[in-house]
């Protein structure tokens, strides 16, 4: 970057960080030059360029005033490894669209401009960095598994408080993050199962429990619940399965054949639960009345199927993401973490066990 471009970026950074707001007066040119340890010529050129763009107005005898904060200092770059339009996984599509809609709604409300940049394996981090500076973005939202080599390059040249990671794990990054608190919702559905009188519980969890934090968390909370209620794990039926409807269908049939004492099946995803419901229907069993079923995610189909589930407020997650980003920019704080709480959605697939069980 040329010297005057560096000065431009610095002034926009001051505005974005809240050091200067609409109508505020900037220091004189010589003071800015002294502060940045640079000659006054690049500062003068930077002021001229920012004046052309409407960010600054110079008033003779009064000084330099900020006039275009909204247009030039509220631009966010979203870096995502997930393209819902190119992904054949229904849940990934639905999750991302809900999340992005929340981001979009809040950005519109806050008069923030967004740009979504979908990453690929051959991405050049330096081109992203160049765009960030030249197009005057003030912050970056990281969604999905953003390649570490890209993140490392960006974080060497951009203040860490300008990032927010939408991640349950925080992605191990030294930046602000926002994620999901799974425990309240899962504990609520398991407590309801217990209160209804169920003691023989089937649990279908993901095969990726060792590699995905969110699935490990569901498994951990289930075990914690059993310990809390003094339910021996030996009296539960825990099956590791895949994540789609057919996996749930097969696992349900295995439980029904080998463990007729089970009165409720809790599934780590609603997709698995849909398979369980189909297995019950095929056996002429009524979900809820004969065998209870509960899922996780509360996907759009869940209400139609009367499936009890755990609600993840993905749209709220998106709304909060934008606010967390700007809060970090204002305070210059890093490594702050916030969580969105899950909750039980109670429906008729979950009832008391039948007496003959």
Total helical elements: 13
Element string (H = helix, E = strand): HHHEEHEHEHEHEEHEHEHEHEHEHEE
* Low-pLDDT segments, ≥5 res: none
Q: How many strands appear in the DSSP assignment?
A: 14
Mean pLDDT: 88
List keywords for this structure.
alpha/beta; four-stranded parallel sheet
Entry summary:
The chain has helices at residues 3-16, 29-36, 40-52, 69-73, 90-109, 125-134, 148-157, 183-195, 213-228, 245-258, 270-282, 301-304, 314-331; strands at residues 56-59, 63-66, 75-80, 113-118, 139-143, 163-166, 176-181, 201-206, 237-241, 264-267, 292-294, 309-311, 337-341, 343-345. By secondary structure, the chain is of the alpha/beta class.
């Amino acid at each position: 970057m040329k010297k005057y471009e560096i000065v431009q970026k610095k002034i926009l950074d001051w505005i974005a960080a809240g050091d200067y707001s609409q109508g505020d007066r900037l220091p004189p040119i010589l003071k800015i030059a002294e502060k940045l340890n640079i000659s006054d010529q690049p500062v003068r050129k930077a002021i001229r360029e920012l004046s052309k763009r409407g960010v600054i107005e110079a008033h003779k005898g009064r000084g330099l005033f900020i006039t275009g904060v909204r247009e030039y200092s509220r631009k966010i770059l979203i870096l995502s490894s997930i393209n819902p339009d190119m992904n054949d996984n229904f849940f990934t599509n639905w999750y991302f669209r809900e999340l992005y809609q929340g981001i979009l709604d809040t950005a519109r409300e806050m008069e923030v401009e967004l740009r979504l940049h979908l990453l690929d394996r051959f991405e050049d981090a330096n081109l992203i960095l160049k765009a960030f500076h030249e197009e005057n973005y003030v912050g970056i939202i990281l969604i999905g598994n953003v390649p570490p080599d890209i993140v490392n390059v960006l974080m060497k040249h951009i203040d860490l408080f300008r990032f927010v990671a939408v991640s349950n794990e925080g992605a191990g990054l030294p930046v602000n993050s926002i994620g999901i608190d799974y425990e309240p919702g899962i504990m609520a559905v398991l407590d309801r199962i217990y209160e209804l009188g169920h003691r023989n519980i089937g649990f279908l969890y993901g095969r990726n429990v060792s590699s995905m934090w969110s699935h490990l968390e569901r498994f951990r909370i289930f075990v914690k619940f059993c310990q809390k209620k003094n339910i021996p794990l030996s009296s539960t039926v825990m099956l590791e399965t895949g994540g789609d409807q057919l996996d749930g269908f097969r696992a349900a049939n295995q439980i029904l054949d080998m463990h007729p004492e089970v009165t409720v099946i809790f599934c780590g995803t609603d997709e698995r639960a849909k398979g369980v419901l189909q297995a019950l229907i095929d056996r002429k069993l009524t979900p809820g009345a004969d065998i209870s079923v509960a899922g996780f995610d509360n996907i759009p189909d869940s209400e139609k199927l009367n499936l009890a589930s755990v609600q993840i407020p993905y749209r709220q997650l998106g709304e909060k993401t934008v606010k967390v980003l700007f809060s970090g920019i204002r305070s210059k704080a890093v490594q702050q973490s916030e969580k969105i709480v899950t909750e039980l959605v109670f429906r008729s697939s979950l009832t008391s066990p039948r007496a003959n069980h």
